[in-house]
């Protein structure tokens, strides 16, 4: 019984829920971080997206169970390992989907509902089909991060209110997400080597050299978009000029991540890497602290 419960929890991939922390980005950068009612809405939105993400993971694991069994890491997933049946996983996924829909339609406005449902539909399509289309697979995953961030803004809106989503906000997140996703693909190819295609067919169309070129583009775009945001995009906000002081933290974080990818062959699990590498975790904390101090103190 305990083993089955642990397998169900593992199936939900709670470690991956850290990706949904992007929900809180809109709360912070829209200057509503000190309002308890909006914070509560953001927390509930985080819960909804964690549930929706878990539904997608369950769909993915059911479909890819056979391929996962021959993967050096994914073979430990409950369905692939045989510790949980597909029927049990399907029932669990259905229950979670129902709970998420109840929360979605009882607690949020139309704009959040549209983004959340679009995210669910897009990621299910990704698991079924879109992940096999070269380049588009990377862009879809990155778009999922953008949708999380935008949903976080829509979640905290009051009745009849419309908080502006700036192009700077979307651009920064899109390029950062692309950077992380491409680094993850590179790690997969290095890890799986000649077996890469059998585990993920789309990897046939990638190579370390091609991905290195994409990483260069994504890295440059991420740094430039954030630099432009902190110098131009926050004009009009109180103490906006001081946001440029957060740029060194972003630069160090990007370069540290590249170091981990190229010198330590890491980057396959960003959600784990963030908490395993003390330097990376510390710079993220310092960046977030500096942003809050500049915008709110």
Q: Using DSSP, what is the number of strands?
A: 0
Poorly predicted sequence stretches spanning 5 or more consecutive residues: none
The portion of residues assigned to helices is over 70%
Distance between the termini: 50 Å
The main β sheet shows up as: none
Rounded Rg: 20 Å
List the helices and strands in order: HHHHHHHHHHHHHH
Category by helix and strand content: mainly alpha
Average pLDDT over all residues: 87
Write up what this structure looks like:
By secondary structure, this protein is an all-alpha fold. The chain has 14 helices and no strands. The chain has helices spanning 2-11, 23-29, 36-63, 65-68, 78-81, 86-107, 110-128, 136-155, 167-192, 196-199, 208-233, 247-263, 270-276, 278-296. Helix 3 (36-63) packs antiparallel against helix 8. The chain starts with a helix and ends with a helix. The model has no long low-confidence stretch (mean pLDDT 87).
Quick overview of this protein structure:
It is globular and about 55 Å long. The mean pLDDT is 87.
Task: List key phrases describing it.
297 residues; mainly alpha; 14 helices; 72% helix
How does the SSE layout of this entry go?
Elements: H1 2-11, H2 23-29, H3 36-63, H4 65-68, H5 78-81, H6 86-107, H7 110-128, H8 136-155, H9 167-192, H10 196-199, H11 208-233, H12 247-263, H13 270-276, H14 278-296
Helix pairs in contact: 2-8, 3-6, 3-7, 3-8, 7-8, 8-9, 9-11, 11-12, 12-14
């Amino acid at each position: 019984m305990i083993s089955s419960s642990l397998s169900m929890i593992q199936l939900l991939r709670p470690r991956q829920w850290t990706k949904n922390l992007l929900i809180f980005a809109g709360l912070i950068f829209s200057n509503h971080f000190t309002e308890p009612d909006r914070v509560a809405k953001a927390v509930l939105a985080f819960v909804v997206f964690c549930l929706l993400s878990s539904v997608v993971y369950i769909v993915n694991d059911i479909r890819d169970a056979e391929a996962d069994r021959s993967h050096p890491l994914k073979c430990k997933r409950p369905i692939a390992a045989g510790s949980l049946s597909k029927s049990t996983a399907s029932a669990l996924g259905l229950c979670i989907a129902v709970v998420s829909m109840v929360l979605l339609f009882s607690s949020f406005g139309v704009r959040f509902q549209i983004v959340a449902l679009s995210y669910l539909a897009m990621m299910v399509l990704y698991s079924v089909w879109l992940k096999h289309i070269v380049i588009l697979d990377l862009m879809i995953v990155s778009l999922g991060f953008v949708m999380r961030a935008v949903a976080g803004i829509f979640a905290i809106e009051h009745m009849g209110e419309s908080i502006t989503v700036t192009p700077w906000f979307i651009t920064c997140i899109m390029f950062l997400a692309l950077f992380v996703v491409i680094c993850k693909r590179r790690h997969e190819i290095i890890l799986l080597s000649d077996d890469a295609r059998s585990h993920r067919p789309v990897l046939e169309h990638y190579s370390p050299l091609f991905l290195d070129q994409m990483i260069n583009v994504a890295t440059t775009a991420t740094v430039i978009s954030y630099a432009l945001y902190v110098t131009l995009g926050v004009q009009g906000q109180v103490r906006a000029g001081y946001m440029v002081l957060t740029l060194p933290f972003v630069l160090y974080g990007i370069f540290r991540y590249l170091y981990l990818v190229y010198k330590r062959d890491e980057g396959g699990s960003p959600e784990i890497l963030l908490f395993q590498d003390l330097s990376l975790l510390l710079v993220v904390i310092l960046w977030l602290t500096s942003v809050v101090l500049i915008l709110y103190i």
